[in-house]
Structures are given as structure tokens and as C-alpha cells.
Amino acid sequence: MPISPRPASMTVERRLVVTLWCAGLAAFAAMYAPQGLLPQIAGDIEVEASQAALLISAATLGLALSVLPWAWVADRIGLQKAMRFAAGAAAVCAVAVPFLPTFEAMLAGRLTHGIALGGIPALAMTLSHDIAVPARAATIAGSYVAATSVGGLSGRLLAVPVADHFGWRTALLVLGLVVAVAMIAMIWVIPAGTGAPRTESALHTVRGHLGNRAMWPILVVGMLLSGAVMTMFNYLPFRLAAAPYGLEPAVISLVFLTYLGGTAGSRATGWLGRRFGPPIILGAAGMLVVVGATVTTAGRLPVIVAGVALLTVGFFVGHAVASSMVAARAEVGRSQATALYTIAYYSGSSIFGWAGGIAWSGGQWRAVAVLVVALGIAAIVFSTVGSRAGPRAQPCTQSRL
């Protein structure tokens, strides 16, 4: 029978929560700040919408490529040291990338920034499960996801009004300085771990996770949900900037306030999971994505915003549940398990975030909405598959979420 981790004191738990909030705020503000600026960037450097969206996909792709190497590093030097190195590199990139002169150079810089950020999301979720007591791990993990939603929202809301007055490069620089401060704060407050660095074979552990039939459907759900929300927010600004809406960038950025619904939803996932069971909540999250995307095809702006809000809540609830399920179902090598989830998540974000541009070019918003609906339906299907997984994962899931 596995031995439960040593209970964390309240002081350690507070430091853990502050660490996760700094990490979530900084990482996601940096990653998604250009999203609200995509129409301005596309117009300024004369590229198509799908090309401008590569600024987001490059960062998420870099993150997806780097999480397993970061997990390998964490297993050898410890989670805390790995997260400190990642935070320092991400702080430097956040300040340096806005100075890059060409679009191609910025793509390379965003890819590098994503690689640095890869040491934060997967390791942050692992840290919450390694330090917090099992009864609190899911709630604290949900708190981290809430921080990511606030970070994504803050980055977008801060960047757009600054860009209106000083240009999009200055906006990204200002945001980069804020991100650097938050990363430094995370380095300062991260709590000490409860165990020594591990030395097991990362490749062997990854193969074990992939052979766990209870694990892979949840990885696919994370990929599909991230692809859905990324597609929505990458191309919604282009729709609202065009006729018949013709909205200014600062007004369009207010749509990102729907992230607040995701913040509230992700905070409630621990309670919802215990009451109804994680697979049911995961399926319900996929349904919210489907309904929300369908509602956005309406013509009236308030209805569109309502649809975006539904989709956002569904995404964040699903993401919080899926990421915690993966960490809880890992019998060994939790950092590799959460790294696999992060790879799936950001691969979906990169691939579908770019593919949405093809849909936009071919059929405008209705084609984008059809793509998002298809992703939501697929997420529901794989949630059902995950709920029928063998008993191998069930005790862990029930005890942690």
C-alpha cells in the first residue's frame, strides 16, 4: 500500500499556493499576450491571420517539445531547482523577444520562450501533488489552473490598451517586465521539497504511462479541449474587428473577461469531482464547449459573448479535472505523467490553433465554430472512454479528486 506524503504545514502550503499563482500568472500572461494583438500584428507586418497566429503556436509548440526534457531534469536535480532555472530563462525571454526585428526572428524567439516555459506548467502540477496532502492536492491544483486563467486574461487585457497608445512591440515589452517580476517572485518563494531527486529511467516511465489504458484517453481530452479554446480565441478578434462589428482592439479585449468564468469554474473542480466523479465532470465540460461554440454562430454580440463564456468555463473545468486526473493516476513518475499531459495539451493548442486559420480562410466564423464543435464532441467521446478504463486507476482518482 503506497505511503502518503508527509502533511504540509500551513506555512509550506501558503508558499506553495503563492508559487503556483506566480507561475500560472507569469507563464500564461507571457504565452498568450500576443493573442489580442494578432489583428494589429497581421496588419502591421502584412501577414495572413493564420501566419500571425503562429506567434501563439510557436510558443505552445516550444513548450510541448520541452516538457519531457524538463521532467528529466527535474527528476535529477529536483523540482524546485528545475522550476527556478525555467523561471529565470522565461524572464529573460519575456523581456528580449519584443526587441527582435523581424517576424521570423520573433517566431524563433517565441519558440525559445516556449521551451523555457516548458519547465513550469508540468512541474507546477507535479509540485502541488508532491507537497500538498492528498485531500488538498486537487484543490490546490485547481487553484493553479485558476491562476493560469487570470494570467491569460491579464496578459491580454494589459497588452491591448498599451498597444493602442505605444504600439504592439512596446506592449509586449511592458508585459515582459511584469512577467519577469512574477518569475523572480516565484523563484524566491518556492517551498522546499519533501524528497530527493529521482534517478529512474524517464523513457521507461513514459512507456509505462502510455501503456496505462486509464491514462491515454485523458491525454487526448486535454489535447482536444486546448485546441478548442485556442482556436476560438485566436480568430475571434479577427471576426469582431471586421464588419458588421468593427470593434476597436481595446473593446475586443474585453471579451477575454470571460476567462473569469474559467477561474471560478476551475476553483470548483475539486468539490465537483468529489460529488459527481471526474469522468462525469469531464464529459460535462466537453458539452459546454460544444454548446458554447454553437452559440457563437449567432449574430448578436451579447449572444456571442455568452457563447464564449460557456466555452471558456467548460474548457477550464475540463482542463483542471483532466490535468489532476493524470497526476493522480500516475503510480510512479508523476512528473513524466504530467509532462505527457502538457505535451498533449500544447500540441492540441499548436495544431488546432493553426488549423483554425485554414477554417477561417475557407469559411470564416461558421467554419471555425464547426471545428470547435467537432473538438468538443470528440472530447466527450474520449471522456466516456476514460471513464470505462480498467480498475488500475480508479482508487487513485477517487482519493485525489
Helix and strand layout, with pairings?
Layout (H helix, E strand, L loop, with lengths): L9 H23 L5 H8 L3 H4 L1 H24 L1 H18 L6 H15 L3 H11 L2 H33 L1 H22 L12 H9 L5 H26 L7 H5 L5 H9 L1 H8 L1 H18 L5 H29 L4 H54 L6 H7 L1
Helix pairs in contact: 1-7, 1-8, 1-9, 4-5, 4-6, 4-17, 5-6, 5-7, 5-9, 7-8, 7-17, 8-9, 8-13, 8-16, 11-15, 11-16, 11-17, 13-16, 14-15, 15-16, 15-17, 16-17, 16-18
Summarize the structure.
By secondary structure, the protein is mainly α. The protein is built from 18 helices and no strands. The chain is globular.
Describe the structure in your own words.
It is a single chain. By secondary structure, this protein is an all-alpha fold. It has a single domain, classed as Growth Hormone, Chain: A (Up-down Bundle), CATH 1.20.1250. It contains 18 helices and no strands.
